Amino acid sequence: MRDLLSLERYSTFLFVTVMAVVTLLLSFWYTWVIFPFFAFAILTIVGIRDMRQTRHSILRNYPVLGHLRFLFEAIRPEIRQYLIENDQDEQPFSREQRSLVYQRAKGAEDKRPFGTQEKVYEAGYSWLTHSVQPVHFSDTDFRVMIGGPDCKKPYSASLYNISAMSFGSLSANAIKALNTGAKLGGFAQDTGEGGISRYHREPGGDLIYEIGSGYFGCRNDDGTFSPEKFAEQAADDQVKMIELKLSQGAKPGHGGMLPASKITEEIAEARHIPMGVDCVSPAAHSAFSSPRELMRFIAQLRDLSGGKPVGFKLCIGHRREFMCMVKAMLETGIIPDFIVVDGTEGGTGAAPLEFANHVGMPMIEGLTFVHNTLRGAGIRDHVKVGAAGKLVSAFDIARALSLGADWCNSARGYMFSIGCIQAQACHTNHCPVGVATQDPLRQKALNVENKSQRVARFHANTLKALGEIAGAAGLNDPSGFLPYHFMTRRGDGQMTEANDVYNYLPIGFLLDDSGEHTVYRERWARASADSFAPPEART
Fold first, then answer.
1. Quick check: 199 and 176 in contact, CB under 8 A?
2. Where does the pLDDT of residue 78 fall: very low under 50, low under 70, confident under 90, or very high at 90 and above?
3. Cα atoms in the 13 Å half-sphere on the side-chain side of 503
4. Nearest to residue 417, comparing CAs of 122, 238, 187?
5. pLDDT tens-digit series, residues 310-345
6. What is the pLDDT of residues 370-426, one digit of tens each?
7. What's the rounded Cα separation, in Å, for the pair 503 and 353?
């Protein structure tokens, strides 16, 4: 099968090579055939060069034929201007967004001429308010210290890290390129729930070890959590934080299964699962079933890890359920070191259409709710909050910081930095650039050395841009962004501050007797530290 795939990918190159040989032979009888021979010979040389170069994965996988993509990219502005679309039309990421990542990853010019293409007088347009006294940053390595009072080994994290993507969903070369880039740039890579693979370990970059409901890498034979195996994994100095995945933006509340036919020896090694057996990720965890048990499990993970920062990731669903967790924090005294809010717009994982489109809360609303609930409970200062969900530009990061995030993660942004072209074939094993595939022939096209440099440059240039817009707002640090720094055009054409919609609520408001903020108070009254179920369903 692999040989057939190889022939399919190299079909154009093989055709021009055969035609070069045929026309060369025919030229001995028909002199005019020498001209087609030169044409096919040149294309053959181009194909050989494509397979030997390391900059473009698409050309290594599709010699000769791959040049059509770059040709269409070159003439696309004219085609788009007169016939098809503008830079904002494509989904889920526009060409403008992807081009920004590519340019910053390559260290190329990321400026644009002729003014904005945004429709600044239409509803939904957002902008940053700036200062007449801008600030200049000489150092844009912005960081945040993560670790609460019970954490013995706090971690100084970058403000922009690689979000959760597992080995198995991404190729070995993609994982190595991302982790090598993280090592070069001094930031962290989230392992995803697929465990810590050899490709995470080889480069030595900082890791956030994500534990999902399958407990991959720290599970017993029956799929339950193994404290001994977890302690062994967490003891690695490369592991800086532990993230318990409750749900993800791509498919919140949905489990998954990796068929036995897709499980390789390397995947089995990373996940600690047997070969030849379907690998199931349940929708719910087996290690806990109530808010109190969740907090006790977090305390156990912190103790087993030797005091490393431990937190959880979720996409907000029932808001009352998150309040159940916060009540459990107050009543047990066990407070996680961090919470990562994933928006439903996050989506590296393949998901049923209904889940991808209509399940889970978008990041902005979810982040605002988490931030204000923690403020209302009086524990916001004890918990750092991360945000994830289509954050690829400095403006995206700045807006998330203004709504309460302490740092941001990105998955698809970093995928673009290693060559993803948004082919949306991630779940087919036919990724044309070797990013999201386990096919060794396809992933071989992704050159780790070249792509890791792009990862590091994308991170550095994005933080540089963040420093520039923070300075333009007159701030001494990006952490100073607040909702009032951002304006939005309403449906009636008027402008409004983000503070009018996503404002910070008073510290401790959920603990006093005032009648304000009823949306929060009504859910808080229905929340219980003993159960995730609503009051009417509790026994």
1. yes
2. very low
3. 9
4. 187
5. 999 999 999 999 999 999 999 999 999 999 999 887
6. 999 999 999 999 999 999 989 999 999 999 999 999 999 999 999 999 999 888 878
7. 32
Structural contact between residues 344 and 187, judged by C-beta atoms closer than 8 angstroms: no
Please, are residues 369 and 450 in contact by the beta-carbon 8 Å criterion?
A: no
Exposure of 357 by Cβ count < 10 A (0-12 exposed, 13-18 middle, 19+ buried)? exposed
Mean pLDDT score, 141-166: 96
- pTM score of the predicted model: 0.85
Residue-wise DSSP of 343-405: -TT--SS---HHHHHHSS--HHHHHHHHHHHHHHTT-GGG-EEEEESS--SHHHHHHHHHTT-
Alpha carbon distance 416, 249 (integer Å): 19
Is the previous residue joined to 92 through a cis bond, with omega within 30 degrees of 0? yes
Of residues 82 and 188, the one with the higher pLDDT is 188
Reading the block at residue 177, the tokens are 């390129």
Q: Cα-flanking dihedrals φ and ψ of residue 344, to 5°? A: -65, -15
> Model confidence over 439-478: pLDDT tens digits?
888 888 899 999 999 999 999 999 999 999 999 999 999 9
Q: Are strands 486-489 and 126-128 parallel, antiparallel or unpaired?
A: antiparallel
Instruction: For residues 457 and 476, give the distance between their C-alpha atoms in angstroms, rounded to a whole number.
Output: 23
| Burial class of residue 447, CB neighbours in 10 A (0-12, 13-18, 19+) | buried
Distance CA 433, CA 224 (A): 36
Give the strands of the sheet with 486-489, arranged side by side: 126-128, 486-489, 495-497
End-to-end CA distance of the chain: 56
| Main-chain dihedrals φ then ψ at residue 140, nearest 5 degrees | -115, 25
105 in Cβ contact with 457 (< 8 Å): yes
Euclidean distance between CA atoms 421 and 423, whole angstroms: 5
- Residues forming beta bridges with residue 489, ordered by sequence position: 495
Phi, psi of 214 (to 5 degrees): -85, -10
- Residues 383/374, Cβ–Cβ less than 8 Å: yes
Q: SS3 for 249-317, per residue? A: CCCCCCCEEECHHHCCHHHHHHHCCCCCCCEEECCCCCCCCCHHHHHHHHHHHHHHCCCCCEEEEECCC
C-beta of residue 464 within 8 angstroms of C-beta of residue 140: yes
Residue linked to tokens 């404290």: 227
230: number of Cβ within 10 Å: 21
